[in-house]
Structure formats: structure tokens, C-alpha cells
Amino acid sequence: MNEGITIQNLHVSYSGKEVLKNVSFSFKTGNLIGILGPNGAGKSTLMKAILGLIPHDRGSVSIGDRPLKEMRKQIAYVPQRSNIDWDFPIIVKDTVLLGTYPKLGLFHRPKKSDKDWAITCLEKVGMEEFANSQIGELSGGQQQRVFLARALAQNADYFFLDEPFVGIDAGSEEVIINMLRDLQQQGKTIFVVHHDLSKVKEYFDELILINKELYGAGPVQTVFQAKNMEKAYGMPFTMAGSMGGGM
Fold first, then answer.
1. Which residue segment(s) compose the domain that 50 sits in?
2. Mean pLDDT, to the nearest integer, of 48-62?
3. Cβ(49)–Cβ(20) under 8 Å?
4. Strands 75-78, 32-36: parallel, antiparallel or unpaired by DSSP?
5. For residue 218, what is the enclosing H or E element?
6. Can you give the residue ranges of the ABC transporter domain (predicted)?
7. How far is CA 46 from the centre of its chain?
8. What is the pLDDT of residues 165-180, one digit of tens each?
9. Angle between helices 170-185 and 140-153 (to 10 degrees)
10. Which of 70-79, 157-166, 184-193 has the lowest average pLDDT?
11. Nearest-angstrom CA–CA distance, 39 and 45
């Protein structure tokens, strides 16, 4: 696909309180885009509003010249681990197989080819040996890799990941970022809600910087500047300070 994603004048409120104000940006396809901002800035809210998971007061989301609702089958979403019921009784390979369902259509059961594809996706994230394990028995990093495999199984063009690197081991983080880079090389577009400022330049080529409103959207070298970070985070900031964790 060669269609960009455009957000125009997005406003979101909860219980009458505005939490995102007049957010607009546009990105071409084939980018790995980080969404940055302090705690409570509205990063996850922005992602959910883009995906239509929560309502917005006004504004629009489009991919190319098509509204989001026409593109849902081309979009994969990995929520925060804290929002997932890990006690649900399902094994790993069936979790990944769920990724094939959006394109199967109503009343169609997965075929052998779909099941084989699910195993292939597990292999891509190094989790095939856990195919028959209960999802709740895995470590945090292993769970996150399984949910990335489920996203891969969708054969999507757009990937949205909400804090995928929180609470996981270094090995899993490396597997995930390498997989995201591979997807980018394939022309996929990836949005990642992120908090570790020390990895920003290493991981992303484009950034969205928000704190209820937009403080920057574009190339990392343009957005990830002390003056922009100070405005968004509301505190003095030096680029040396970015070597710490999330602020």
C-alpha cells in the first residue's frame, strides 16, 4: 500500500473534561513512529481514538482518502499487557490463531493453512516451543511476543502497539524491536506508545510528542529536541537527561 495516515483536529474528552485537544498530523506509510509524552499525557487515549476504540468529540482519521472504518481489516492492535485478562483459559497457538479471524469472515472456521500460518508467526518471534502452553503461564516478555505474533497473523498493513516494552526482559524487547524493523522494511506502518526516552533515537524514525495537545510530529531529529521536550514535559530537559527512563 502507498497510503498515508492523516489525523485532523482530533478532540477527545472524558466526562466533559478534554483530554486531547486539536491534534493533527500526517505520516507516510513505511514509518516506525513513537508516541511520546509524560504520564497522563493522553498517549494511549490518542491511540485508542485513532482506532475508534473510544469516541472522539470531533476530528477525523483517514488512511489515504478512505475513512478508518473501511480499513479495519488492515489494522492490527496490541493493547497494554495490563488491559489483558491473562487468566483466560487459552493456549498460545490458539491466541495467535485469533489473528486470522478478521479476514475469515462470519461462520468460517480456520483451515489447516491458517493454523500453519499461526505457527509460522510464532516462529517469527521465537515462541513456537510454547505453542501448547497456557498464555497465563508465560513471562511478561513471552506474553508480549505472543501478542505480537497474533498481530502478525492478521497480515495487516498498519500496526498499533501500546507500551509493548513495559515489564519485559531485554531479550524479548530485542526480538520485538527487530520484528518491528522487519515490518517497516516490508512497507508496514507502525505506531508505538513508548516511555523510555533513552531508546527513542535508536528505535524510531518519526515521533509524535503530546501532552493533551500536540508538541511535535515528524522526524526524530526534529521533534526530539530539548525545547520541545521541556514544553511537553513541563520541566527543564537536556538531551543528556534523555538517557534516563520515562519522565
1. 5-243
2. 93
3. yes
4. unpaired
5. strand 213-219
6. 5-237
7. 11
8. 998 999 999 999 999 9
9. 20
10. 70-79
11. 12
Q: Cell 499487557 sits at which residue?
A: 81
Whether 183 shows a pLDDT value over 80: the answer reads: yes
50: left (phi over 0), alpha (psi -120 to 50) or beta: alpha
User: Distance between CA 25 and CA 178 in Å, rounded?
Assistant: 26
Note whether 5 and 33 are within 8 A (CB): no
What letter does residue 56 receive in the DSSP assignment?
-
How many structural domains compose the chain? 1
**Torsion angle of C-alpha atoms 218, 243, 167, 181, degrees rounded to 10:** 40
Q: Which of 217, 222, 184 is nearest to 203 (CA)?
A: 184
pLDDT of residue 1: 42
Mean residue pLDDT of the chain comes to 89
Check residue 185 and give its pLDDT.
96
Instruction: For residue 64, give the CATH number of its domain.
Output: 3.40.50.300
Yes or no: say if 214 and 232 are a contact pair by the CB < 8 Å rule: no
Closest by CA to 197, choosing from 239, 243, 164, is 243
- Cell numbers describing residue 220: 526524530
Ordered DSSP codes for 85-108: -TTS--BHHHHHHGGGHHHH-TT-
* Partners of 208 in beta bridges: 35, 217
Q: Which helix (H) or strand (E) holds 213?
A: strand 213-219
Q: In the prediction, which pLDDT does 231 show? A: 95
- Give how far Cα 61 sits from Cα of 7, 51, 76, 161, Å: 5, 8, 16, 17
**How far is 88 from 143, CA to CA, in rounded Å?**
13
CA 85/CA 206 separation, integer angstroms: 32
Q: What is the DSSP letter of 115?
A: H
